[in-house]
Amino acid sequence: MLTVIGWFLYVGLDRQIADRHQADLNGMTELVLYVIDRIPSFDALATDPQLVAHLLVGHDTLKLWIYLDGRTLFSSSVPEIPKETWADMAVPFRHPSESRLWQDGTGRLHRFTTAGYQSDRLGSGNAVIILALDISDEQKILQSFWRNLIGAIAAGLLIAAALGFFITRYGLGPLRR
Q: 63-66: long-range contacts (C-beta < 8 A, 24 or more apart)?
């Protein structure tokens, strides 16, 4: 019973963290789309990356890439998420996709989402916006929670077994006599 309760606690916490990450990515995607709506052209973005780079100030764990017809217009981080990692994702128009996980070459884990953008005002072609959130620290906390939970369950089982042994031994003492 302790194990089942522990598992539900762990899964619930993991789901809440993932939902919070998705909400953060959705909100930032909407903000990026809002800013892109106000940029005169994709060429302006390519020549002046500060048009969107300021969105990442204060968000140390957030990465942003904008691609137009396969070429990189903006990249806030290297390495970039390989195209084969996100190419099969549905890239909904102006809405973030369901997020996925990606581990970069340094072992850092990211949750990322994609969104599509097209505007005649900005020139021809379809842009793909990719936002990634570094979730390595949260994963470490979740792993620590799991280890502590397993330790608490093991200690609980040992204590329950010891108490059961002594209660049974002393409770059945009169019957033994």
A: 63/110, 63/112, 63/131, 63/132, 63/133, 63/134, 64/32, 64/129, 64/130, 64/131, 64/132, 65/129, 65/130, 65/132, 66/32, 66/36, 66/127, 66/128, 66/129, 66/130
Walk along the chain (177 residues) and give the pLDDT tens digit of each residue: 888 888 899 999 999 999 999 999 999 999 998 988 888 777 788 788 888 899 999 898 999 999 887 788 888 987 888 888 888 876 767 788 888 899 988 889 999 999 988 776 656 667 889 999 999 999 999 999 999 999 999 998 999 999 999 999 888 888 877
